[in-house]
Design brief:
It is a single chain. The protein folds into two domains: 50 residues, no CATH class; 67 residues, Multidrug-efflux Transporter Regulator, Chain: A, Domain 2. The strands form two sheets. Strands 3-5-4 form a three-stranded antiparallel β-sheet. The chain has a two-stranded antiparallel ribbon with strand order 1-2. The longest helix has 28 residues. By secondary structure, it is of the alpha+beta class. Helix 1 packs antiparallel against helix 2 and helix 3 packs across helix 4.
């Protein structure tokens, strides 16, 4: 996998302007199914993806694009996706929390499994925050 590029301020500004332009094109052409830009014809769904990429770049973050179907990730790619360390991912795999396949001596995780774990992790976080908020209300800690 290639290293993620560092996004410069100039690139952020350009991405922000481009994302706004694409959003306007998307609004104007949402019923057509495609958009034509100086001889380039794009499906609207590709335009939506490009706008999402530009939105992320506009705030200075790098973007990684992976094919969704049947994609297999390295432990480092899973760690990057979940914003955790690679050794932590290896521990989760060894505990059986994330399914994996061995390719030689290397572990590979299906993108679908990594995303399922990510969704479960976020859902768990939301549930715990709701419990904490409820407790704060019961204890009358001044939170609204």
């Amino acid at each position: 996998m290639k290293h993620l590029p560092i996004i410069t301020q100039e690139q952020q500004n350009t991405a922000l302007l481009s994302a706004k332009t694409l959003a306007e094109l998307q609004r104007k052409n949402e019923n057509n199914g495609f958009v034509q830009i100086e001889g380039l014809v794009l499906p609207v769904v590709a335009l939506e993806l490009l706008k999402d990429i530009l939105d992320v770049m506009a705030v200075g973050k790098s973007v990684m694009v992976l094919p969704a179907e049947d994609a297999m990730l390295t432990t480092q790619e899973v760690a990057d996706l979940l914003h955790v360390s690679r050794p932590y991912i290896v521990k989760l795999i060894e505990k059986g929390d994330i399914p994996h396949q061995k390719v030689g001596t290397h572990r590979r995780v299906a993108l679908a499994d990594a995303l399922a774990y990510k969704n479960a992790m976020y859902q768990d976080r939301e549930n715990n925050l709701a419990i904490l908020a409820e407790e704060a209300q019961k204890l009358n800690l001044g939170y609204v």
